[in-house]
């Protein structure tokens, strides 16, 4: 059985262990955001949930050297800010051993964090094509 999503506003895991990157698109003005929001941040109209293509371009990245008890990743780990081809910008940890630079084309992949009943599916950034 696939691990449930860490945040159901960000991704949907299906029974066959596939996943969708979720966003919200405003039918009135077309503005698209990630994660899902019920109202448009530009015009306030009700949004509709859409599936976003999990590919984009790195606009910034950094290495995190500290952690908190509620973060399953062990430092140091990379985090990249990615502008998706569908518009929204999101931040996600970078796959271990990879170091995407500003302007690199990347993809989002799913990975499991936590153990046992705490295991959840989350997103990570990976160099496109790897
Ligand atoms: Zn709108």
Automatic annotation (TrEMBL):
Pfam families: OB_ChsH2_C, zf-ChsH2. It comes from the Bacteria. Residues 50-108 form the ChsH2 C-terminal OB-fold domain. Gene3D superfamilies: 6.10.30.10. InterPro entries: ChsH2_C (IPR002878), ChsH2_Znr (IPR022002), NA-bd_OB-fold (IPR012340), Thioester_dehydratase-like (IPR052513). Residues 21-46 form the ChsH2 rubredoxin-like zinc ribbon domain. This is DUF35 domain-containing protein. The lineage of its organism: Bacteria, Bacillati, Actinomycetota, Actinomycetes, Pseudonocardiales.
């Amino acid at each position: 059985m696939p691990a449930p999503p860490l945040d159901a506003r960000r991704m949907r895991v299906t029974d066959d262990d596939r996943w969708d990157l979720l966003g919200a698109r405003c039918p009135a003005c077309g503005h698209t955001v990630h994660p899902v929001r019920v109202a448009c941040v530009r015009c306030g109209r009700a949004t509709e949930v859409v599936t976003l293509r999990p590919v984009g371009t790195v606009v910034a990245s950094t290495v995190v050297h500290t952690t908190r008890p509620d973060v399953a990743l062990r430092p140091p780990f990379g985090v990249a800010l990615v502008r998706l081809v569908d518009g929204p910008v999101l931040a996600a940890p970078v796959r271990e051993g990879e170091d995407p630079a500003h302007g690199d084309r990347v993809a989002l992949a799913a990975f499991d964090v936590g153990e046992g009943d705490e295991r959840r599916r989350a997103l990570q950034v990976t160099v496109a094509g790897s």
